[in-house]
Specification:
Structural class: mainly alpha
Helix content: 40-55%
Strand content: under 5%
Shape: rod-shaped
Strand order of the largest sheet: 1-2
Distance between the termini: 70 Å
């Protein structure tokens, strides 16, 4: 399908570089980037999403066992006895 779109200069430049690096047309590059973005938005990406606390500290995504402050303090105490 043929259509006209207005892109911000930085988005157009990124798409052109992506197209050139992959040996594809600009239209195919934009299509590919939109599809990849859609997969990421739907959680299909294998890359974990990191969060941030209210103060901006990066956090790991919840998975497996959660370490509490008490668990860390207990481990530190046990390490001091060794």
């Amino acid at each position: 399908m043929r259509t006209n779109v207005n892109l911000a200069d930085d988005a157009r430049q990124f798409a052109e570089v992506y197209a050139h690096a992959n040996g594809i047309t600009l239209g195919d590059a934009i299509t590919d980037l939109i599809r990849k973005s859609s997969q990421t938005a739907n959680g299909a990406s294998g890359t974990p999403r990191f969060g941030r606390t209210a103060s901006g500290f990066p956090t790991f995504p919840p998975k497996g066992r959660i370490l509490t402050t008490e668990m860390v303090l207990k481990a530190q105490e046990e390490e001091d006895f060794v």
